[in-house]
Structure formats: C-alpha cells, structure tokens
Amino acid sequence: MSELDPGDGWSAGSTAGFIDPVPMEDDPTELFPGDAGTLDADVRRVLVQLLRRKFLLAEKNPAQWRTLLENQQIIESRMHDLFVRLVVDHDRGIAYKQQVRSTELDVPILLRDEPYNRAETLVLVHLRTVFQRERGTGETSARVDIEELEQTVLTYFDPNDHNLARTQQEVRSAVQRLVTEGLLVEESAGRYRITPLVEVVLSTAKLAELEQWLRERNEATA
C-alpha cells in the first residue's frame, strides 16, 4: 500500500496533521532579504538612533520622539537584551542610554565612554553655570555668545601659553561638539541657546566638584 493510499485515512481534501497555510499577504513584511526582525521600520530607526547617538531630543526630533513613546516598552526590551538601560526624561524631553554594570553578573560592555577634553569640560562648566543661574531667576531659557564663552574659558588656560589662536580654536571645536550632541543650539551666528541636556551631562554635584577644582587651580597659579 502506498504512503498516500486512501486506506491510510488521507484524502485530497483533508489537512489533518498539517499546519494551516498562511496567506502570503499575512506574512511579516521583510525590509531586506532574509529580514528576521519584527519591528516596523520607524521603530528600528529610533532604536538605531538611540544606540548611535548620546541623546534623542524631543525638540529636535519630534517624530522620532513620538515613535519612542508609542513603542517604549519594546525598545526598552531590545536595549535590555544588550545590557543597556534606556532613560526617558519626559519633563526635559530627553532620552538617553546607560551601560548596565553589575558586580554580580558578567556584563559585556557595549558602550564606551568618550570623555570630554579640557576645553569641552571648561565650556560645559560655564554653560551649566549660566543655565542654572538663568533658571534660578525664572528664565525659561539661557543663551550665550561665542565671545563670552571664549573670554570665560580662556581664563582657565595657562596664562603663560601665548598661542591665543590655538586656544580659541580649541574652544570653538568644543562648542561645535556640544552643538552636534544637542547641548547647544545655534540660533544666529555666534549666538547659542543652552538646552536642558546640560543638566543631564553635568549634574549639580559634578558641577560643584569641577568649580571647586577650578578655584583651587586658579589659586595655585595666581
């Protein structure tokens, strides 16, 4: 008797023991050949942006911010799979990631810290100080000029270094990095608005620590 002999209880109209076929139109849409992902393209883009950049800003990327809030749970889940924590600050409109670290669990480190150099740190201290001062007076935003930044930051450099052009370039390069990262927004030539991101990068405690270090350094060189 053959395998498909009707005597085995099989008939052309029966599907017993088989998986029901799925209509082609119900298959998950592949974004590229062999795509095994399950997230929509827009959600994947937000996930990639969060992994590539330090911050996602609601003000700068409103569409991606909405996508993040609508899909926060699944995005958090994907990031947790990589031992990365997602922080969403709704009040400031900022999302960023943190490397999970544990003394009890062997955690592979995915995120590497990119420390700020001397000029960038000094610019940050000034920006954070101005932002805190303006917010303390009830202002909703804080702004600085490049000339003001240069004059303040240059006071912390070695007074015996007479290469002013090089030092100014360091400060301007520092400002450009902070613009790229979203801590500053250039509203007009040489005029910048400080974003709330500066509070995330430089906490009040860290600011006080750096200000104390700068005071001691200035006293030592006076």
Automatic annotation (TrEMBL):
Span list, region Disordered: 1-20
InterPro entries in alphabetical order: JetB
Protein name: DUF4194 domain-containing protein
Source organism of this protein record: Saccharomonospora cyanea NA-134
